[in-house]
Hints:
This protein is mainly beta.
Amino acid sequence: AECDWRxxxxxxxxxxxxxxxxxxxxxxxxPFGYFERPCDGEEENGHRYIVLTGSKRxxxxxxxxxxxxxxxxxxxxxxxVRSPVFSDHGGPRTSESVFTDQGLTKFEYELVPVSPEGDFxxxxxxxxxxxxxxxxxxxxxHKGCLAPSGSFVSVDADNVSITAxxxxxxxxxxxxxxxxxxxxxxxxxxxxxLLDEELNLSFGKFxxxxxxxxxxxxxAGDIREVMMTEFxx
Length: 233
């Protein structure tokens, strides 16, 4: 979607009047999980998705760059642009005042039906795909040492998401970070074909795990869980 915004002291919202049934509940994504808030129409912050559930069905609203929402009963609203004075500290308004969100704004969103339970694992995956689409690189035919297809990293649990696979900050090994996305715990196997390693991990509700895989190790016990800052516990 595109919005060419020239207004001042105004806010624009995109609203979806849904029919999810009785007892609506709204859940907002937060870092490494989601959080329930009341359906009272108040402005709330969220990340890549919000999920509204009711007695009949659920609706998920995904986006790639809007982070403010409000939900009143069964109506979902996403704030598109707002134009107060930039860095307003209550000073005088003049012709030189600069207003926020002026000009062309582009964003993507998806409205997806889900079950009354919310389907949070599937919603998180769809939100990740929307925000991190595959990068296509056009190349001609040539010889190479890699197979026609492959994977750097994969996980077999639908409610575990890998958020990082990178070199350690001290450049002495590899870091894998993953978390449980649906609030129900999981047993997961993370496969790392490039390192010829497999990690079998148990996750609690919304638990985040960071695993360090050193370059030089005497045995498998050297692979260990560390803090998010990559220090040992």
